[in-house]
Write a structure and sequence with these properties.
The protein has one domain: Hypothetical protein af1432 (Orthogonal Bundle). The protein starts with a helix and ends in an 8-residue tail after the last helix. The protein has a two-stranded antiparallel ribbon. The chain is built from 10 helices and 2 strands. It has helices at about 1-5, 30-40, 50-60, 65-70, 75-95, 100-115, 120-140, 140-145, 150-155, 165-180, and strands at about 15-20, 25. Helix 2 (about 30-40) runs antiparallel to helix 3 and helix 3 (about 50-60) crosses helix 6 (about 100-115). The radius of gyration is 16 Å and the shape is globular. It is about 65% helix and about 5% strand. The mean pLDDT is about 95. It is mainly α. GO terms for molecular function: 5'-deoxynucleotidase activity; metal ion binding. This is HD domain-containing protein. InterPro entries: HD_domain, YfbR/HDDC2. Pfam families: HD_3 (PF13023). It comes from Candidatus Anaerobutyricum stercoris.
Length: about 190
Amino acid sequence: MAFCLEIDKEKFIGRQTYLSDGERKENDAEHAWHMAIMTLLLSEYANEEIDVLKTMGMLLIHDLVEIDAGDTYAYDEEGKKTQHARETAAADRLFGMLPEDQDSRLRSWWEEFESGDTPESRFARAMDHIQPLMLNAATHGKSWEEHGVHLSQILNRNKETSKGSSQLWDYAYENFILPNLAAGKITPDE
């Protein structure tokens, strides 16, 4: 039960992506829930057959480490330099609160997500990248505009998104990115 109470803290970890109404930014728990539901609904678009429940579990736990490590903004190159070390230390503490079998399972899911080496982790990572694109599009690029995000930054972050779902990546590019580029919400590269 201590772990169950501890992970409630995920609700306090703010992200840079606004909710679809643009009124406030989402938190990590909302992000995890949203991606899990998206996986349930969109798994048919995975490039490879996936274990849907495992993928949902991966998405629900992969950002728990941010309780200790904090959220590293997708385009924060300085923060990314220490992200792995911060998140590994957080995984040690958080998953270490669990009985050995649960510690092992959740840690293996977290490591699998981070590696991107399996069909489930590739699709989970695609959801982790497409969900904020969708919310940014719903808010007419509000967060992208606030941060002066360049097209090259978005494309670099999403360079492997198509490995999880080429159809969903194509949809996101055409419907979320290009309209916001045309509207000046995403900064074009010269």
